[in-house]
From TrEMBL:
Keyword vocabulary terms for this entry: Signal
PROSITE patterns named in the record: PROKAR_LIPOPROTEIN (PS51257)
Signal peptide (UniProt feature, chain positions): 1-22
Name used for this protein in its record: DUF1307 domain-containing protein
Pfam name, any one: DUF1307
Coiled coil regions in record: none
Organism of derivation: Ornithinibacillus sp. 4-3
Length: 154
């Protein structure tokens, strides 16, 4: 149970960290990739190469989590995952949701860096310290880093 939760949290944190470490006009870029059996979609919104918002969606089958059904996943991980993201969801600019579909677990995160509190971002594993600078939020670098990990633009 905890191993599966750790796997989901790890995938989420990995995507978020790559996004942030990597990461004139408004631009929107979407990339998709598979990491350890989880399909991940990351959409960036940026102005002049500075990421302002990111949307992430991670979908992982119950089978890949060694679970036989939606019901097993909900009873095993539901409360743990809600608790893991509860404090982040109380902060402005951060919204993380967990959904149990028929065949897969869905974790979605929307972060608005123009509003987000860096402490709230630290709580969901982004480890940014007390500030965000332009290099942390570079769209060009984020896209390049994700592409080097096998993600492709949609």
């Amino acid at each position: 149970m905890k191993k599966n939760l750790r796997n989901i949290m790890f995938l989420f944190i990995l995507t978020a960290m790559v996004t942030l470490v990597a990461c004139g006009s408004s631009e929107k870029v979407t990339l998709e990739g598979d990491v350890d059996g989880a399909t991940q979609i990351v959409t960036f919104e940026a102005k002049k190469d500075k990421i302002e918002k990111v949307e992430m969606k991670i979908a992982q089958t119950y089978e890949s989590l060694n679970m036989s059904s939606k019901e097993e996943a909900e009873s095993t991980m539901g409360e743990l995952m809600e608790e893991a993201f509860a404090s982040a969801n109380e902060s402005d600019g951060v919204d993380v949701s967990v959904g149990f579909e028929d065949e897969e677990l869905i974790v979605e995160a929307n972060i608005d860096f123009t509003k987000a509190d860096t402490d709230a971002l630290d709580e969901i594993g982004m480890g940014l310290g007390s500030s965000l600078d332009d290099e942390d939020l570079s769209l060009e670098k984020a896209v390049s880093d994700l592409e080097s990990q096998g993600f492709e633009k949609k």
